[in-house]
Specification:
Layout (H helix, E strand, L loop, with lengths): L2 H5 L3 E6 L5 H10 L12 E3 L5 E6 L4 H6 L5 E5 H7 L4 E5 L5 E8 L14 E4 L2 H17 L4 H7 L14 H6 L2 H7 L8 E4 L15 E6 L3 H5 L2 E10 L1 E5 L6 H19 E9 L3 H7 L7 E4 L5 E9 L3 H11 L2 E7 L10
Parallel strand pairs: 1-3, 1-4, 7-8, 7-9
Antiparallel strand pairs: 2-3, 4-11, 5-11, 6-9, 6-10, 12-14, 12-15, 13-14
The protein binds adenosine-5'-triphosphate and 1-O-pyrophosphono-5-O-phosphono-alpha-D-ribofuranose.
EC number: 2.4.2.17
InterPro entries: ATP-PRT_HisG_long, ATP_PRibTrfase_cat, ATP_PRibTrfase_CS, ATP_PRibTrfase_HisG, HisG_C, N-reg_PII-like_a/b, N-reg_PII/ATP_PRibTrfase_C
Family: Belongs to the ATP phosphoribosyltransferase family.
Length: 344
């Protein structure tokens, strides 16, 4: 099939081709009834029931394609959006891929604070965010008289920072092309930021880094590598992003609305219970609903039935509380899909 010619009138929607976000994205597409058939090894799949083509790309590249306007919609991490500095519009958080970007150092080593890493070697996949972080730290150090550049020199790590406004060639030479071309900001900082694409946690043990900047969710990877966190640069989660001028705004709206419906359905359950009218005000404080609870008069005098959306993560506590208040016949129902105009 001539795929390229089939793409011209389709909305392009980028999805991580592998890694931590991939499976959740496929679930989301299923929930939104975006049907497709992906041929073996092909990174483009035409949707069967919409004028959409899915493009399977590395999560890190998705903001770039969407920012350039080549792709209309995409799913990636907020960390990748921040790192790419692409001009994209964030439509909604998707509720998965939650983790932190943290500065990590050897657990048994001497370093306790990020500023002690000034002038040393840092390995990361997030060279722009790392450069910005250390540039700020160095500036703060310089203001408070704690000159990291000087410290870098004393430790024989070059330091080499040029005069203000000059390009620091020593750093440029030793920093990856990705950091330089993407940021243009590495000049002037004495901390050496080096790019690696994966297994960042191995860098300290291999003697390549004094500290790393990497994503942490459970902390298992960090622990297994003998590292500890000393600072959090950002917290991140998966997001739906949109280009500034999508090719088919009406279809973008439809997809956005469907995805929001799936997210809301995943996030909430429907809680229904019976309660005597005199306890209603207290009970509805516990289950205020997304907009407001639905109250229905029961045939039995003085009793009502309440129906409310409740955040799934707090449902057990809510049920305990309702029972204490005197609610009866408390039922919890899963929501399989939803539509609403409000936020998630
Ligand atoms: N441990 C994690 N827990 C939750 N979300 C994560 C985790 N690691 C990464 N992510 C999110 O997933 C995005 C993609 O990371 P991932 O490591 O899966 O990338 P990848 O390089 O495309 O895949 P792989 O590591 O398999 O090569 C990250 O930018 C982040 O938003
Ligand atoms: O805190 P944890 O739950 O252990 O997760 C953190 C790990 O997950 C990510 O890597 P991933 O396993 O996706 O592989 P990668 O190192 O090849 O990027 C991240 O880069 C960490 O290494």
């Amino acid at each position: 099939m001539d795929l390229v010619n089939h793409l011209s009138d389709r909305l392009l929607f980028a999805v991580p081709k592998k890694g931590r976000l991939h499976e959740n994205c496929l679930d989301l597409l299923r929930g939104a009834d975006i049907q497709f058939h992906r041929h073996n090894r092909l990174d483009i799949a035409l949707c069967i029931n919409h004028r959409i083509a899915l493009v399977f790309l590395p999560a890190a590249d998705i903001p770039v394609f969407v920012g350039e306007g080549r792709v209309d919609l995409g799913i990636t991490g907020q960390d990748q959006v921040a790192e790419s500095q692409a001009g994209v519009e964030e439509l909604m958080e998707l509720g998965f891929g939650k983790c932190k970007l943290q500065v990590q150092v050897p657990e048994k080593g001497p370093i306790q604070e990020p500023k002690e890493l000034i002038g040393k070697n840092i390995v990361t996949s997030f060279t722009l965010l790392a450069s910005e972080y250390f540039a700020k730290l160095e500036a703060e150090g310089a203001r408070s008289g704690d000159d990291g550049e000087e410290r870098g020199r004393k430790e024989g790590r070059g330091g080499g920072g040029g005069r203000e406004g000059e390009l620091n060639l020593d750093v440029l030479e030793k920093t990856t092309p990705r950091a330089v071309s993407r940021t243009g900001k590495v000049d002037g900082i004495v901390t050496r930021i080096k790019y690696v694409g994966g297994s960042v946690e191995a860098a300290c043990a291999l003697g390549v880094a004094d500290g790393i900047i990497d994503l942490v969710e459970s902390g298992e990877t960090m622990k297994a590598a003998g590292l500890k966190p000393i600072a959090t640069i950002l917290t991140t989660g998966a997001v739906l992003i949109k280009s500034k001028h999508p090719s088919n705004p009406a279809l973008v709206k439809t997809i956005e609305s469907r995805i929001r419906g799936v997210i809301v359905a995943k996030k909430y359950v429907l809680c229904t219970y019976n309660i005597s009218r005199d306890k209603l005000a207290v009970a509805t404080k516990v289950t205020p609903g997304k907009r407001a609870p639905t109250i229905t008069q029961l045939e039995e005098e003085g009793w009502v039935s309440v129906s409310s959306m409740v955040d799934k993560s707090s449902i057990a506590t809510v049920m305990d509380r309702l029972e204490e208040i005197g609610a009866e016949d408390i039922l919890v129902t899963q929501i399989s899909n939803s539509r609403s105009t409000g936020g998630v």
